[in-house]
Amino acid sequence: MNRIIAWLAVIVALALSATGSRADELVMFERAGCVWCARFNAEIAPIYGKTEESQTAPLRRVDLNRPPPADLAGIDPGAFTPTFVVVKEGREIGRIRGYPGDAFFFGLLNRILSSTGSEPGRS
Question: Domain coordinates of the chain in residue numbers?
C-alpha cells in the first residue's frame, strides 16, 4: 500500500511539472574569465538569494563551456556574457545582455518580471 501511494505521488509530481507549473527562473549564461560575470558575482550574487526577485525567479547558472542543459536547448544564450534570461514554463520571457551594474540590474529585471505578471512580492 505504501508503495502505491509513493508511486502516485511521483506520478502527480511528474504531471505537475509537465503542465508547466514551474516557477520563473533567472538563467545566467556565463563563462570562465568573464570580467562582467565576476563583477556580478561580487556585487549582486551575494545578496540575490535574499531578495524578493529571487523568490520569483531563482538564479540558475549555466556555464557556456559545457553542453547546454536539455531543458534550455531552445534558448539562445547569445554572444555576450553574462546574459540573463528570464524563463517561464520553458520559454524565454526577457533577457538582459551583459551586466549593467548594480544600479540598473534590478530595475531591468523587475521590468521583465512585471511584464510576465510575476512581480516580486506578489504570489
Answer: 22-115
